Amino acid sequence: MNDAGVQTGGVAAITIENLGKSFGDFVALRNVNLTVSQGERIVICGPSGSGKSTLIRSINRLEQHQSGRIVVEGTELTHDLKGIEKIRSNVGMVFQHFNLFPHLTILENCTLAPIWVRKLPRKEAEEVAWHYLRKVRIPEQANKYPGQLSGGQQQRVAIARALCMKPRIMLFDEPTSALDPEMIKEVLDTMIELANDGMTMVCVTHEMGFAQAVADRVVFMDGGQIVEEQEPAAFFSAPRHERTKLFLSQILGH
């Protein structure tokens, strides 16, 4: 099912083979196979409990898979801590909840990891932070604290903070689901700009307009498995599986 992974002709950024993960008796992932090429934008969608968040959290070891393999830019995810650190330093992640440090300013939130993890001098880390705060269009908020910002602004800070580590791959786990409707567009616009810059992206989202605008492929999951993956035009106009058709009719209202 995953021959689509070679579409862009590039080197694989992420290779997932026969991935399995259970929480007690609950099977969260069952023989999942997915290849993401460098520069490719993948949107993963599906009903609650379908395994999509578990899958994306497995890519940087926030969840530990029990069977199968994950290889990120040539490094396999195992128990080896050096390998995990290497992958995490190249893979940025933005969560549903912003996870900003409330006692640090926006600028400090953005410079913390580059200083401590990448060992950048503070001045250089601040220059990088200013660059990405301008990129997400909120440089004027740099000296405020997270609690002084709207949800949409906080999520854009979270994106800037992830970018400050200069990742080659960005993972988004339902980045707009905790936002008020009027704030969703500003975050999606930021993500669209990022996609247009050629960043490799894997995004779990229910925002189907974003999938149509940005994705090279849409992956539909249900019951811990990939049910269908297609280019957006085909996915929305001619889904192959009844389960996909039902999901789209519920989420799109037709």
Description:
This protein has 254 residues and is an alpha/beta fold. Helix content is 37%, strand content 25%. The chain has nine helices and ten strands. α3 (106-116) packs across α4, α3 (106-116) packs parallel to α5 and α4 packs across α5 (151-163). The longest helix has 16 residues, at 181-196. It starts with 11 loop residues before the first strand and ends with a helix.
Topology:
Layout: E1 12-23, E2 26-37, E3 41-45, H1 52-58, E4 67-72, E5 75-76, H2 81-90, E6 91-94, H3 106-116, H4 122-135, H5 151-163, E7 169-173, H6 181-196, E8 200-204, H7 208-214, E9 217-222, E10 225-230, H8 232-237, H9 242-252
Parallel strand pairs: 3-8, 3-9, 6-7, 7-8
Antiparallel strand pairs: 1-2, 1-4, 4-5, 9-10
Helix pairs in contact: 3-4, 3-5, 4-5, 5-6
Summarize the structure.
Helix content is 37%, strand content 25%. It is an alpha/beta fold. It has a six-stranded mixed sheet, sandwiched between helices. Strands 2-1-4-5 form a four-stranded antiparallel sheet, covered by helices on one side.
